[in-house]
Amino acid sequence: MVNEFLGPRKIITGENSIRAIPNEMKNLGGSHPLIVTDDGIIKAGILKQLISVLDEQKVEYKIFPEVESDPEFAIMEKGKKVFMEGQHDILIALGGGSSIDTAKVIGLLATNEGTVKDYLGIIILKNDPIPVIAIPTTAGTGSEVTHMAMATDKENNLKRLIKGPQLIPKSAVLDPTLLKSLPPLTISYTGIDAFTHGLESFLSTRSTLITQQLSLGAIKLIYHALIPFKENPKDTELASKMLHGSCLAGIAFTNAELGAIHALASPLAGQYHLPHGLSCALLLCNVLKVNRDAALEKYAILFETLGFSRNGLSDQKCADKLIEAIDGLVRKLGIPSSLKSFGVKPQALPQMVEYVLKSPALTANPKKLNREEVESLFNSVC
To answer: Which DSSP string do the residues of 355-369 spell out, in sequence order?
Structure first.
């Protein structure tokens, strides 16, 4: 079997690595950036850190601060208009997955005709998009190194995927000092999302020797750093481990794909605007139980990767103990055990089941799920 591997062009890491951005802009042929971010980043003072670096180097820039959680088509198209009117030549995405995804889509719209609707699904662009420098301020989505973006289809109340190799940002800047003001709940949700990326990319039927090593590295880093980081977000060493874990998982699933957890989580986020990490956390252990017998050897490897000793345990026993350990992690994070308090209604399930059964993520799941199993998994968290 022939496999291809997609990776980021450059990853810049370390405390205060945000200071490398002016030089990186020059390397990419840019001098007049549009900064894509959101109001939360501004209020947290993180944007000010970037601006001080740009001002010091006398870089002229404009800010597009209108990104919202689960950004809609209209926001992305407005960002493209601002980019074109300002005659910008490079994009700086500062924020979580929503800001980075928005910048990716602005970049492709700026060099290719049409609207967001014209680029849903898997794409090969006629023209390369505007270069994006991605600066994650959460350790979760891995969007700074992935070849995809999510856009919310408000008309149909669904999250839509845009996916293609040209969407990978030109540079990713992993600066742990930018994570100091993260709220505990955000750390929980984004951290468990990154952990799920590592798990699903490892269990994926499309994983390779390369992606498996990336996945395992991500899982180990995040599992041991997530709770301590939530308790002390100002610890830059822990923040660095979380950023690196999220990044590794992002590279892994870019190449290996994901699975049923993300297939089920996507319509929950689109229909009810739930935090993506919350949906993943609620589904995580239930999906692991369903998939267990289809990937027992891999579950045993995951068990040992987390630092547990087999001591002669069978693969099945290791798998059971793995699920127990992960369930313990989710509980320690203080994540709710069901979606009842979020207004999820059973009558919406048929539409979501249809969405899941058509999801590309489901094709790489270790077990092929039927309609009844998908319905059962939704019911288990409602």
So the answer is: HHHT-GGGGGSSS--
